[in-house]
Amino acid sequence: MVVETKFARFAALSLDSGSVIEPVEVAYETYGKLNASRSNAILIEHAFSGDAHAAFESAETGQPGWWDNMIGPGKAFDTDKYFVVCSNVLGGCRGTTGPSSINPATGCPYAMSFPVITIGDMVRLQKMLVDSLGIERLLTVTGGSMGGMQALAWAVAYPEAVTSVIPIASTSRHSAQQIAFNEVGRQAIMSDPDWREGDYYGRMKPARGLAVARMVGHITYMSDASMREKFGRRLRGKDGFGFDFSVDFEVESYLRYRGSQFVDRFDANSYLYITKAMDYFDLSAGYGSLGAALEPSHARYLVMSFTSDWLYPSYQSREVVRALRSRNKDVAYCELTSSYGHDAFLVDVAEETELVRGFLASTYGETG
After folding, report:
1. Is 145 a catalytic residue?
2. Is the pTM of this model over 0.85?
3. pLDDT band at 351 (very low <50, low <70, confident <90, very high)
4. CATH architecture of 2-174+281-367
5. Does 309 qualify as catalytic in the annotation?
6. Is it true that domain 178-275 has CATH number 1.10.1740.110?
7. Catalytic: which of 145, 170, 223, 314?
8. Is position 342 annotated as part of the catalytic site?
9. What is the SS3 string spanning the chain?
10. pLDDT tens by residue, 23-69
11. Catalytic residue among 309, 317, 343, 348
């Protein structure tokens, strides 16, 4: 199945900072069919560097979606049963308004004049999209990593519009370590002479800084065990060390490849804005406690984490579970065994699929 990215345009979006973006456009894809009662809609939230293309073959690139192993006929998010929606986040660079978009007031890219955004702003734009599709209540909102943050934000901001929530390998707020890794990435970009205070559009991109940022990030997505298994200390060449600063180890070659590949598909300024939004996120802010923030939610929850995930460790998922249970919410929690680290929610999907399939079936049976 080949899918095309669609676009929705809205007159304005008010932001948590007090700024307003006028107009705003959002890129999205849909899979499956919305039923007559409009009760089978699922919103998929992508992680930091994802986009609207979550499943099937892209008409634009010919590539499969980033969660193609989870979305489709007979898969966890079964498109024979459910209507699945995925949009690119605000601030992104894959069709939704962001710093690389043209500012209608100037005719030039926003660059660093783009207002600082939050996870709440991303969710607000998604709500506008969902409303425009005629969906009053989502069967579930789900995502991994930053996607899980958005799913939790939906439950708090729009409790009447969410039947269930599935946050995976996520958190209710970033720790100091998570903020620190993001700051290293931002500094790598802003230290690149080609960044030019964000005004690099039409010129040389800050490719070196963005590649380093991605290299650092990619290390955090893997585990020690997965890196040991995939690379060990294997050398790139057959003749031993080069005794220079070229690539000696396979892991060095892999990280450089990942970095250069990322530069071809992602905007450096979007990296800055989206990581800052993640760092600002704190579900309990303004409520006094996480439990108080989740009190108005009527949703069922399935919270999942992975044993080898040290970027979003399981204790952060358990904090969400404890807060929900303190308010007598309907929540199931599973810590899945995997050696893949944070990336497990994308690649180690067999057990994840069974849990999601069962949870959705019971939720849809009660509401559909």
Report:
1. yes
2. yes
3. very high
4. 3-Layer(aba) Sandwich (3.40)
5. yes
6. yes
7. 145
8. yes
9. CEECCEEEEECCEECCCCCEECCEEEEEEEECCCCCCCCCEEEEECCCCCCCCCCCEECCCCCECCCCCCECCCCCECCCCCEEEEECCCCCCCCCCCCCCEECCCCEECHHHCCCCCHHHHHHHHHHHHHHCCCCCECEEEEECHHHHHHHHHHHHCHHHECEEEEECCCCECCHHHHHHHHHHHHHHHCCHHHHHHCCCCCCCCHHHHHHHHHHHHHHHCCHHHHHHHCCCCECCCCCCCCCCCCCEHHHHHHHHHHHHHHCCCCHHHHHHHHHHHHHCECCCCCCCHHHHHCCCCCEEEEEEECCCCCCCHHHHHHHHHHHHHCCCCEEEEEECCCCHHHHHHHCCHHHHHHHHHHHHHHHHHHC
10. 999 999 999 999 999 999 999 999 999 999 999 999 999 999 999 99
11. 309
